[in-house]
Amino acid sequence: MTEAMADVTFPTGFEDLAPWSDWVMHGERARYEKRVNSSMEELQAFYDAVFPRLQDACDYLEQYPVDELSDEGVNLLWLMCSLVTVSFPVECWRQPRVPDAGASSIDAVLEPAV
Amino acid sequence: MPHFPKPAEGSWTEHYPHLSTAPSSYADSTSPEFYELERKAIFEKTWLNLGRVEQIPRVGSYFTKEIDAAGTSIVVVRSGPDEFTAFHNICRHRGNKLVWNDFPKEETSGVCRNFTCKYHGWRYDLQGALTFVQQEEEFFGLDKADYPLASVQIDTWEGWLFVNLDPDNTTSLREYMGALGKGLEGYPFEKMTQVHKYRAEIGSNWKLFIDAFTEFYHAPVLHVRQAVNEESEKLGKYGYEALHYELDGPHGVVSSWGGMSPPKDLNMVKPIERVLRSGLFGPWDAPDIGLDHPLPAQNLANSPVWGLDSYLFFPNWMLLVWKPNWLLTYHYWPTSYNTHIFEGTCYFVPPKNGKERLAQELAVVTFKEYGLQDGNTLEATQRMIESNTPVTSFPLNDQEIMIRHLHTTVQQIVDEYATANGVSVLG
Lengths: 114, 427
Description:
The complex is a heterodimer. Chain A is mostly helical. Chain A contains five helices and one strand. In chain A, helix 2 (28-36) packs across helix 5 (71-93), helix 3 (40-50) crosses helix 5 (71-93) and helix 4 packs antiparallel against helix 5 (71-93). The mean pLDDT of chain A is 93. Chain B folds into two domains: 12-25 and 186-421, Naphthalene 1,2-dioxygenase Alpha Subunit, Chain A, domain 1; 48-174, 3-layer Sandwich (Rieske Iron-sulfur Protein), CATH 2.102.10. Chain B is built from nine helices and 17 strands. Chain B has helices at 12-15, 32-43, 173-182, 206-213, 219-222, 229-238, 271-276, 354-386, 401-421; strands at residues 48-52, 61-67, 72-80, 83-88, 109-111, 115-116, 123-124, 130-132, 151-157, 160-164, 194-202, 244-248, 251-257, 306-313, 317-322, 326-336, 339-348. The longest helix of chain B has 33 residues, at 354-386. Chain B is globular, with a radius of gyration of 23 Å. The A-B interface holds A 28, 32, 51, 54-55, 57-66, 69, 73, 76-77, 80-81, 83-85, 87-88, 91-93, 98-102, 104-112, 114 and B 194-200, 202-203, 225-226, 270-272, 275-276, 342, 344-345, 350-358, 361-362, 364-365, 368-369, 371-373, 375-377, 379.
């Protein structure tokens, strides 16, 4: 874990997610980039560790309007957004990239601030 | 035996006498000459959608749009509280591009009080009037009133911005939107201000991507791995049938079932969809948008299993209105006969909390994953229809009626243009 990542913290009760803080990123474009540059083993390990906490995260995130989330809450939201991105290779494709997508890309050009 | 009733003629296609049932040619998608005619006959003459008025929220908010197919760049600005103005993005002095940042070919947006040319400082107000000329006394009898920005027709329909590059156009936007547009009036589009927008450069003719998104015949096959196994088998066996097709002038709609939002059986969907209660058809828990029943142009079959309507407003704007109260739009901007820029935009009611935000994220990412599969398939199609093969005639089934309609409409408009202007079209 790098110094910068050590600053990324999650709400009380989600401390076990700390090893995955490098997946806390703003924007689907960045999350997708990290996914396609990861191995299936890395993606599976992330999914296996984080998916079991998704329901708890939803229960937590449901309590707050998006613009009233604490920094820790935003970190949790963005980590779970990465889980959404990673769920496709794990649950559907069995590979990091969309099958037969070749060099093509569809890039986010406008996304919500949080 | 169809699962959903078809018109008395026996098929959707035969219900529309102007459509043939014969195999089709895609010569209209492989020819630089035909594309040049499409530009002149269609993209320089038709109302083109450029998104929502909420994109430019304040007086002075603007964006630029590169419309290669019409050979121009335009500026769209909110010039008054409820007034919109569009003009060609060119300075009247020496022809410099008026509004751009860093890269002359790229689009930009912002807020300003007036537009100042980077080259010699000529200034225009938000209505396009020339208000300042550097060293005006050095010119020869120059009257600023003679040099406004070149205006472009602009209008709105239900908060959607459209421009028409034909200065002689006399068809109002409302009239152009036809019965399908009229039947959607009153939809609370303005409530869906949470926007995720995607862009892709696609190696195919623009019509081929519309073809892909106006038929769902491909869905159980191409997208088979996005469903869980039992669901894939079921979809593969049934194939796909729409609830209803309706053609209206150059426009059309396919109305479809939407049994996945929420699914009857949770085992039909992927684990992440079960937890987030969301997926391809959108978040399952629809926000209240104050619409008690579908509008006249929605769910035309009046079916209890209705899930979405996909409208094609000719030539290049698709609007998908989903039963769980969200929208998806597609724009296809041709850049040559065999390339185009695709834009896909998701519009939601702003999420009430972090959990709803996550449910929307899953819908957005699912759209993107499907789009990637579709986009690359198109490049494979374009390569082969352009290649030197003896295969030039292709059958279309009844669920592909929108494709037949699009290509027939384009051919007809190009033929009329060519006849009127004494140019020849490939046969």
